[in-house]
Amino acid sequence: MSIVRPFTCDDLFHFNAVNLDPLTETYGLNFYLQYMAHWPEFMMVSESAAGQIEGYIMGKCEGSGESWHGHVTALSVAPEYRKLGLAAKLMAQLEDVSEKKRAYFVDLFVRVSNKVAISMYQRLGYVVYRTVLEYYIGSSSGDPDEDAFDMRKALSRDVEQRSIIPLPHPVRADE
């Protein structure tokens, strides 16, 4: 039995196994601490009955007007805990927090090559809003190495679901 609970500072010393996946973006300690300070309600872990971290999600709310939205910065589940619905449970929690913040939609970026994640997000109701060219940077070269899909899911405040009407052309990350 897993529980979803708030991410704590102590978790920073126990979630490395979750971050070993090459498709998981990892950040410096200060980045995680900044999120914990500014958006603690958007940081959650899934924990096993034995107290092991199975996965985590971190995000924030940003934008203004009809662009006010929840954003998934990182979602990762340890390989041995995949296919158990933990990612869906974490996403639902972040969507709930976004609803309470009166966001219009939730968005996330995913590598265009990550077909497993794209399929999961589509099952959760996300659509590809746009392609962002050269979004991901190579870890060793520092050069752009892959495009991203910006995927979105409209929330209840976006009654007409205008936030998820796909753009007809790709964009650059700085647009």
UniProtKB/TrEMBL annotation:
Q: What class of enzyme is it?
A: transferase
Q: Which reaction does it catalyse?
A: N-terminal L-methionyl-L-glutaminyl-[protein] + acetyl-CoA = N-terminal N(alpha)-acetyl-L-methionyl-L-glutaminyl-[protein] + CoA + H(+); N-terminal L-methionyl-L-glutamyl-[protein] + acetyl-CoA = N-terminal N(alpha)-acetyl-L-methionyl-L-glutamyl-[protein] + CoA + H(+); N-terminal L-methionyl-L-asparaginyl-[protein] + acetyl-CoA = N-terminal N(alpha)-acetyl-L-methionyl-L-asparaginyl-[protein] + CoA + H(+); N-terminal L-methionyl-L-aspartyl-[protein] + acetyl-CoA = N-terminal N(alpha)-acetyl-L-methionyl-L-aspartyl-[protein] + CoA + H(+)
Which top-rank group of organisms is this from?
Eukaryota
Keywords from the UniProt entry: Acyltransferase, Transferase
Q: Name one Pfam family in it.
A: Acetyltransf_1
Q: Give GO MF terms, alphabetically.
A: protein N-terminal-methionine acetyltransferase activity
Q: What is its EC number?
A: 2.3.1.254
For the keyword Transferase, the answer is yes
**UniProt KW Acyltransferase keyword:** yes
Query: Where does the N-acetyltransferase domain lie?
Result: 2-156
Q: Name one GO cellular component term.
A: NatB complex
Q: What is the annotated role of this protein in its UniProt record? A: Catalytic subunit of the NatB complex which catalyzes acetylation of the N-terminal methionine residues of peptides beginning with Met-Asp, Met-Glu, Met-Asn and Met-Gln. Proteins with cell cycle functions are overrepresented in the pool of NatB substrates. Required for maintaining the structure and function of actomyosin fibers and for proper cellular migration.
Q: How does it assemble?
A: Component of the N-terminal acetyltransferase B (NatB) complex which is composed of NAA20 and NAA25.
Q: Which family does it belong to?
A: Belongs to the acetyltransferase family. ARD1 subfamily.
| PANTHER family tied to this protein | N-ALPHA-ACETYLTRANSFERASE 20
Name recorded for this polypeptide:
N-alpha-acetyltransferase 20
What organism is recorded for this protein? Answer: Cyprideis torosa
